[in-house]
Amino acid sequence: MASKDTLAKQTNDASFGHVIDELKWRGLIALSTDESALRDQLGQPTTYYCGFDPTAPSLHLGNLVQLLMMRRLQLAGHNPLALVGGATGLIGDPKPTAERTLNSKETVAEWVEKLAHQTARFLDYEGKNPAQLVNNLDWTSGYSAIDFLREIGKHFRVGKMLAKDAVSARLNSESGISYTEFSYQILQGLDFLELYRRYGCVLQSGGSDQWGNLTAGSDLIHKVEGKSVHLIATPLITNSDGKKFGKSEGNAIWLDAELTSPYAMYQFWLNTDDADVIDRLKVFTFLSRAEIEDLEQLVASEPFKREAQRRLAFEVTELVHSTQHAEAARDASLALFGAGDIRNLDQDTLRDALSELPSALVQAGDSVVSALVSTGLCDSNGAARRAIAQGAISLNKIKIDSEEALITDFLPGGMAVLARGKKTLAALFLAR
User: Fold this and answer.
1) Which terminal residue of the chain has fewer beta carbons within 10 Å of its beta carbon, N or C?
2) pLDDT of the residue at 240
């Protein structure tokens, strides 16, 4: 569950007259149904949902955008339903490129539990308008194939389904698309209908690449119940090269500490480009408009200090993990790349930090020259000796002044930090 202290620190910005205005300022609305009607709807307590499919053992940054959208709406007094797709996770939303590999039912069930636990970190399940966790397997498992086709499938038109971007891309590809994945949008549409019937849910959010699936639900409710409901789609968060964050791109930053350590999370945000950092602060933190505008001025006037990046890195690491983890990651970053004391770091944090660096196994008494070559800091013994002679090499932040120097100084846990200059580092691990 989310830390009560963490939740207590989270507020919407009172300088905005309506939650929609803040969401727009933060760049969180790429698409929506009629804004005027949506604004009126959110003038009263509203039940809304977002779905998360267990197609991996952890959520990632793309999912975090949705969780923070949900949290901002909850802070505005609305009622969140966090849906973990025990049914849709057995199929997987169609990718534009190739068919997904279907995971076993046992694996999906295990991942449902993991994702449910993760969503509980970002939403308040105990307050005045507590979040509720739902699983779409609870209603889809009761349908026979015939009932599903008769009661739900009859409301979908194939021509419109074919027009969905991912479906269209797959139809024009060599691999094509299976009926299984083609049917995914019907299942997501059913989710919205069931949540409308069971909880009075009238708003769904998701990524803009999901717009076709989102409208499948709103269209179905209109056809079956004769009611209009609402949709919000967030923009896709991309890397500087324009690629989408996400596991399918091979560059996921996971919310599970075992897959992406708090230190790696911190460093990821610390390396944000100046051109992107203000937008990231708006989306991924609860800092106020005034605080973000102050940081924006610092980016313009003193970009070399990277104050905005440091604040972003700390805020998101604290949000995803904890204040303690964020402080440890910050201290590790300062110790490795700044003026901090590397010997004050705890072993777990140090190991996480060093796991991000080029590394080599060494024995006590190995030469520094050989370690420089084996870690790739120097490309030959001769280059290593020259670097030492030039005073460019240090071990655990102590300058190496002899070409014959041996590795005898290890930090707790049998680790050491070898550096060429201030910023080019490698890790040494004592072979057992």
Assistant:
1) C
2) 65
For the structural domain made of 4-237, what CATH number should be given?
Answer: 3.40.50.620
Q: Do residues 137 and 53 touch, judged by C-beta distance below 8 A? A: no
Sheet holding 47-52, edge to edge: 31-32, 230-234, 203-207, 47-52, 79-84, 132-135
Contact assessment for residue 213 and residue 184, using Cβ atoms and an 8 Å cutoff: yes
* DSSP character at residue 413: T
Query: What pLDDT digit, counting tens, does each position of 34-45 carry?
Result: 999 999 999 999
319 touches 285 (CB < 8 A): yes
pTM for the whole structure: 0.92
Predicted confidence at residue 167, as pLDDT, reads: 87
Residues of the chain with CATH 3.10.290.10: 359-430
Share of the chain above pLDDT 70, in %: 97
To which CATH superfamily is domain 262-353 assigned? Tyrosyl-Transfer RNA Synthetase (1.10.240.10)
Phi and psi at 333, nearest 5°, equal: -65, -45
Total count of residues recorded for the chain: 432
Task: Please say if the pLDDT value at position 248 is more than 60.
Answer: no
Task: Point out the least confidently predicted range of 68-72, 327-331, 339-343.
Answer: 339-343
Q: Where are the domain boundaries for CATH 1.10.240.10 in the chain? A: 262-353
For residue 245, pLDDT beyond 60: no
CATH architecture of 359-430: Roll (3.10)
Could you give phi then psi for residue 308, rounded to 5 degrees?
-65, -40
168-185: average pLDDT: 87
| Domain boundaries for CATH 3.40.50.620 within the chain | 4-237
